[in-house]
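Summary: Need help interpreting a holo structure output

Steps to reproduce:
1. Submit the protein chain below together with the SMILES for guanosine-5'-triphosphate.
2. Request a joint structure prediction with the ligand placed.
3. Inspect the structure token block that comes back.

Expected: a single structure record containing both the chain and the bound molecule.
Actual: see attached output.

Input attached:
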Amino acid sequence: MKKDTIVANATPLIPSAVGIVRISGEDALKIGKQIFTLPQEIQERKAYFGKILDLDGSVLDEGLFIYFKAPKSFTGEDVVEIYPHGSVPVIKKIIENVITLGGRLANPGEFTYRAFLNGKIDLTQAEAIADLISAKTEKASKAAVRLLEGKLSEKINSLRETLLNLISLIEAEINFPEDVEEIDSQLIVENLLKVKKSIDKLVGSYKKGSLIKEGIKLAIVGRPNVGKSSLFNAMVGYERSIVSSYQGTTRDFIEETLKIKDIPIILLDTAGIRETAEYVEKLGIERSKQKIEEADIILFVIDGSQGFTDEDKKIYDEIKNKIHIIVINKADLITKPLDIFEKSDNIIYTSSVTFQGIKDLEEKIIEILGITETEDEIIINLRHYTLLKQAIEKIEKVVENIDFLIENKEILMLDLQEVLNYLEEIVGHITTEDVLGNIFSKFCIGK
Ligand SMILES: Nc1nc2c(c(=O)[nH]1)N(C=O)[C@@H](CNc1ccc(C(=O)N[C@@H](CCC(=O)O)C(=O)O)cc1)CN2
Ligand SMILES: Nc1nc2c(ncn2[C@@H]2O[C@H](COP(=O)(O)OP(=O)(O)OP(=O)(O)O)[C@@H](O)[C@H]2O)c(=O)[nH]1
Ligand SMILES: [Mg+2]
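--- attached output ---
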């Protein structure tokens, strides 16, 4: 079946130095030749400078033209790229003309989808492209690039091989019981545990992966007037939140994003929690409590000059089971450390006046999250995480029931096949339309 030829801008439609229009499909070159002045014979993968023509032959712009001959292109199909200046009307006109000449506007993610269908990239690599484009920090882009380079695929493929070997041994025994040695369950268990260990490690990296990708929600919590908003401002670096000596200054929560050691942080200033609040303040306190629920870490702030009051204690009891750091603020007003918490490693003294302790607090946040530098693969994708978890669960069941399964090799086969399927789904050897639709619909046009 002949696939239609698709076209889209590969660069955003905003005024810029240079833009790219990408055409992919069987007619890419035929169409491209009608809208660009080229020599009679052109070579593939060579940049040509020339005029970009309108359909009436008039000149739209001058630019570059590159022809990537199938299958040596991003999509694996014939691809033509036209590089005009980054002028919005020019780019739009080129696309319109390509459509008039028989092309069709690409759906979001369709170039990448074709690269996947044509075996140029696997599913994890396609997902990596989306992650790379949307990465907000260098750490996130590095993790995505490793995925794009196929590092996860390599790992998954080597695990698949181990499973396939096991499956073929068992299959041989089922089909030719006379000719092959009986497999002992020890060997199966050993191999499965080896596979499980690798998967465990990947699964364990997901928390870090999602922190790197999505950021960390940090809520500043405490009773009124302890200096939450002052701390918030000190951390974001400007007077974002209103500070005053009046209790109940912050009514609604306030959110700002910042980076600590290249990790995106969503910092929340909340209303001081107290019981004797009036109506509007009460609404704010309700919101604070809701934000506490959603936060990854709580910065529990007390006023060092007043010590640990009964009111503090009440709030502390509500948050102490969540990951938290105790911030003893207004440290400039005290001369000796408070001896209120027996022995917690998670106490930091800060002052929003002298800025003492702010750096330590930031370091403590990173330490508490356990984000250390590693070169190991990091799972940044929920789909991968879910499938890996399912694979682990199945392996555990098999190991648990190995005595039964070794006597019932057909069932054992099916179980191992199921583990294998989870891994195949990750790289995209087995997929449903739904999964693919879901993945590629998240792309932007032109990708
Ligand atoms: N101009 C331009 N820049 C781009 C892209 C693009 O499509 N066009 N990309 C789009 O995402 C990324 C690069 N991805 C690409 C991947 C493969 C091939 C390619 O031509 N592959 C051939 C030849 C490989 C080779 O010579 O080693 C192949 O795989 O056969 C091109 C771009 C980022 N930069
Ligand atoms: N000396 C000193 N004063 C501080 C410090 N941090 C805050 N303050 C003062 O404490 C008062 C209350 O500060 P805020 O930051 O508004 O307190 P809050 O916890 O946000 O209060 P609510 O929004 O009412 O819950 C203000 O007068 C601040 O100037 C500090 O580290 N040292
Ligand atoms: Mg406040």
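--- end attachment ---

Reviewer comment: The chain has a mean pLDDT of 92. The domain at 135-206+379-428 is CATH 1.20.120.430 (Four Helix Bundle (Hemerythrin (Met), subunit A)).
Status: needs-info
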